[in-house]
Write the C-alpha cells for this entry.
Amino acid sequence: ALKVKEVSLMHSEGILAGEMKHGPLALVDEHMPIVVIATPDSVYGKMMSVIEQLRARGANLIVICSEDDTEIARVSGPEAVLLPVPCVGEFVQPIVNIVPLQLLSYHLAIKRPHKVADVDRPPNLVRAEPIDPNTFLPLSTHDVFVPSGRQRASPYWRNRLVGRASCRERV
C-alpha cells in the first residue's frame, strides 16, 4: 500500500485480515478494487473468510494465490482476477508475493502520466543522507530523524543525540 501511495500518488491502505470486520468492510462496494494476498500460511483460513465477505459485498477482487490452489478460485468466484505465484516455504513466501505487488504499483504509476513524470523518482519524498555517526553538521528543518544515529537528525533531536555513544560504540 505504501508503494502505491509513493509511486502512483493514489490512496491505498494495507489492512490485516482480522481487522477487516472492524470498519473497513463497511466501506467496500462494487467500485472498490481490493488486492488480497491468500497464499498458504497460518492465516489462510481467515483470508478465505475475508474473501467470501468481500465477494458478498461485490468488491473487485485481485487475489494473489499459490499456483496450485483450486480452493481460492472457487471462493473468490469467476469475476476475480487471480495472480498465481509459486508456493514456497512460509518464511520465503512474502518475498515471492511482493513481485506482483511491485509490478502493480509500477503499472498504476505509468498509467497515470499526468501525476508522476518519472516512476523512478517519485515526487514529495524526503531524502535522508547517511553521514558519519560521530559527526554533527549544521542541520536544516528538512532533515529526518532516524534513531540509529547514522543519518542526520532534525534540530529538535540533534541536541538529544549530542554526546551519546554511536551505534558502533554501544555494541
Observations:
- Strands lie at 33-38, 60-66, 81-85.
- The longest helix spans residues 93-110.
- The mean pLDDT is 76.
- Residues 109 and 116 are 7 Å apart (CA to CA).
